[in-house]
Amino acid sequence: MPWFRNFIQLSATFSKQSPSSSPRRAAAAIFVTRSPSLTQLLRHFSTHPQEKYPGLGPTKGDEKPRVVVLGSGWAGCRLIKDIDTKIYDVVCVSPRNHMVFTPLLASTCVGTLEFRSVAEPIGRIQPAISREPGSYFFLANCTGVDFQNHQVHCQTVTEGVETLDPWNFKVAYDKLVIASGAQASTFGIKGANEHATFLREVHHAQEIRRKLLLNLMLSDVPGITDEEKRRLLHCVVVGGGPTGVEFSGELSDFIQKDVHQRYAHVKDYIHVTLVEANEILSSFDDRLRKYAIKQLTKSGVRLVRGIVKDVQAEKIILSDDTEIPYGVLVWSTGVGPSAFVNSLEIPKAPGGRIGIDEWQRVPSVQDVFAIGDCSGFLENTGRPVLPALAQVAERQGKYLAKLLNHLGKAGGGRADAAKELDFGSPFVYRHLGSMATIGRYKALVDLRQSKEGKGLSLAGFVSWFIWRSAYLTRVVSWRNRFYVAINWLTTFVFGRDISRI
Ligand SMILES: Cc1cc2nc3c(=O)[nH]c(=O)nc-3n(C[C@H](O)[C@H](O)[C@H](O)COP(=O)(O)OP(=O)(O)OC[C@H]3O[C@@H](n4cnc5c(N)ncnc54)[C@H](O)[C@@H]3O)c2cc1C
Q1: Which CATH number is 38-182+337-429's, of 3.50.50.100, 3.40.190.10, 3.10.105.10, 3.40.630.30?
Q2: CATH of the domain spanning 192-334+432-494
Q3: Closest residue (by CA) to atom 37 of ligand 1?
Q4: Tens digits of residue pLDDT in 269-319
Q5: Which atom of ligand 1 lies at the shortest distance from residue 340's CA?
Q6: Which residues have CB under 8 Å from 19's CB, separation 6+?
Q7: Which among 101, 180, 218, 350 has most CB atoms closer than 10 A?
Q8: Best substitution site from 173, 373, 447 to test ligand 1's pocket, by max atoms within 8 Å of Cβ?
Q9: Percentages helix, strand, coil for the chain, rounded to the nearest 5?
């Protein structure tokens, strides 16, 4: 526990006793993080002259078997958290060193929550990654998998560091878990990738917040025309699923509570438009959907039914040629397979995700598993592809960690060693329900197992309270739970933070 270690170190610093006689010093020494020795490290990294790239070679008999996890999202992090590090060394390869608590990401765009409140560093999720000599986190993208030789090919992420070119390396695995998620779908709509902002990562939320605050400030400066002011302050959200609706709700709250008070000069110019091709919140109960439409409209969100056909730098064009100028454009129309998943030459599930069986295995290759948004049941399993949800990804990660721990204990941790072992019960998914906030202290809670099923569905303030309590308990660590609670309280008392840092 860091607080205990800090406490011990602090008391040791203030202690006047000699180091050898101080019991506090002795305790402090025990809690100081043990770094791997240089020889231990060198043993793991090989640069064979005949190999093009450096990397981690296959594990040796006296080392623990190695689980390589691609991705640090809901699925990968849950697996990393639960994997038994006495049995396995864990290597996580991901272009980000933290997990994002996505259900609360929309709240960071308008300053209800701070960015760090929704980001959990990998080293805190699984401390062995920063301590154990054979466990690592590599800031890199996996660029390919050599299934025959049990190796992944990676390229470092050096974005923003102009003096450093990215380099390639390889990591050998005993077990490989692909948890690389999905990517935002734009359905090939012209200009969407270039001009819209997606809402999937913390840096997207930062970009939206900066743009929103910049536009608010510029529209107050003399010399701007009324038409330009209206455009700059028009926030357009494309996609009426839970993410698009939650973001629109957060924005309208921000406008009503904060912009009206602190940007009073421009309050009549700022508007939110939500564009959806079909029904908004189509997976929710009809009654809840109608309630959401009523509440959003009351909050000033303009709902437009339409199909976007073209995205330009300052406007979107719908299929009926309606033009909608915008200052901030947020795109949230669902997800599809990433370029990395598309590049893997293995059988795919309907929709292009990595095909898996009931044990999360990729059946065509040995020792490879896939979990979360990047995976889907193969057609021959007779099971449907599960929705791209955190609750699916997290439970798949939990299930697979248990399965790998079981295999490791049964002597099947090494490459090709689990062929004859019993994999136990298959993964079973039971939907726990859906929730979405719609602003103004209101939310929807739909506890039905499926759209046709029966079950409790609620809307209003009580649902909002359930939504907040549920997510507060689901936030990964006590540290972030504390941050979230404090951010909510600060926003309630003092309003949102509107500084453009
Ligand atoms: C704004 C928002 C709100 C949401 N709200 C909810 C909600 O309320 N409830 C709910 O159930 N679901 C929600 N979701 C969906 C949920 O977040 C996803 O289903 C979930 O994140 C999927 O987890 P995952 O681990 O499969 O993928 P992700 O969480 O997307 O993680 C994928 C990881 O793989 C990494 N990666 C990508 N490519 C590579 C590569 N080539 N090599 C190595 N690593 C790679 C990524 O950097 C990332 O770390 C929301 C999603 C968003 C965006």
Answers
A1: 3.50.50.100
A2: 3.50.50.100
A3: 180
A4: 999 999 999 999 998 989 999 999 999 999 999 999 999 999 999 999 999
A5: 41
A6: 25
A7: 180
A8: 373
A9: 35, 20, 40
